[in-house]
């Protein structure tokens, strides 16, 4: 889709009553800092429990402390960072309680969204979801686990977004980064890429066949199985 950035004529003076759309501004410095820190957390450069000192991060990124502070607040909203008045700011630790709460929330909502997507579309191809699966396979072969986690999240986002229910989608979108963070940490200890890929393909096949009950059941089983695996490898003690 082509995006219009300005409706002003070449002489710089818009005609009376003309629609004027502001030119998009480049990403702010805090957005760039946020993207850098988010990637470092997801790929393990900043591991769970790592203290995040504003001065140290600012020096490393070559910025002032202000964009770092803003980025950390945004990361806290996504669940990747914990802020405590006593211990300061740190990358979120992972334990069994976090995994169970996170995946229970997903299991309670995402399968329903998948079922609604099948009801809405019936038998139909979901090309964007297929593209995400293909990208995940390529990244798994290359051993790029952080990028693989993001590709898997894109797959899940594509299948639940097809539900058209904005409330379910907004809720699940809020869990995206934290799910990637936990899953990627688990893969470092126990690789489950191929099993998860097979489960993803089965869910998509049920959706494209127009079987809402099967798609819902497979999505729920997939989420619950992932939770059990993650608890077994990460849940014994905080990481």
Automatic annotation (TrEMBL):
UniProt name for this protein: GntR family transcriptional regulator
Domain HTH gntR-type: 27-94
InterPro entries named in the record: GntR_C, TF_FadR/GntR_C, Tscrpt_reg_HTH_GntR, WH-like_DNA-bd_sf, WH_DNA-bd_sf
Organism: Actinoplanes nipponensis
Sorted UniProt keywords: DNA-binding, Transcription, Transcription regulation
Record-level Gene Ontology MF annotations: DNA binding; DNA-binding transcription factor activity
The keyword Transcription regulation appears for this protein: yes
PROSITE patterns linked: HTH_GNTR
Sequence intervals crossing the membrane: none
The keyword Zinc is annotated on this UniProt entry: no
